[in-house]
Amino acid sequence: MDGKNKFRLYVDETGNSSYPRRLDAEVGKRYLALTGIAISDYEYTHVLRPRIEEMKYLITGDRDEKITLHRDEIKDRTGAYSVLLNKSVERQWNELMKNLISETNFTLFCVVIDKVEHKKKYPQPNHPYYYCLEVLLERYYKFLEINNGRGDVMFESRGEKEDSELKRQYARIYEFGTSYVSAGAINQRFTSKDIKLKNKESRIEGLELADLLALATKLDTLMLFGEIGHISSKFMKDLIEWFSDKYYYSGRKGYGRKLLS
What we know:
The protein is built from ten helices and six strands. With 261 residues, the protein is an alpha/beta fold.
């Protein structure tokens, strides 16, 4: 298998797994989302990594100074990204970021759960994080099948306890499959029975891109399903415009963007 048929899914989350106490909980507490970016080894090596390195070089001016792409710092122009307060640098940065997102060949998935509605519907609701994980992996499997590819999965490390449970849940899906995809089918397409976990300090470009896009894909999905009325942030609206054609199955309801309740 060459690098064009070998993939990795990079995943980031927005929101948390706790069920809110209030029925009118704000968006950040009501909805949990997992955003996945599937990209081939070839595209990662030859396109994604060089583009991100060029963006970081614009910020630092030093090839050896290592920084992390981080959504909040970029949006708020803080930390190393305070140089973006310079309008000339900002224009160059925006062009590089637009090119990174719109011209790199990757596929987006976003699975969102409405925790309030889910808890109302079920006496014993699913764990929201692992429910989203299962639905996300089903879509990744179908993506690999359609592209005659194989691949694995990487998440950002969240702590010893959380990582241990995530490994267990992933292994369960790999061993037993899901309600819609058999274990045999998953084993044919997934290259590892173990999920990969890396922390921010590892500066994994795929995880950095997932972090950059996670909130925007969540808001975009909520807009699609009519859960929110508008998005006020220009930063978020720009991101959505740039990745709008990247969703699996063109982002149709239930495919590239899925709302669980």
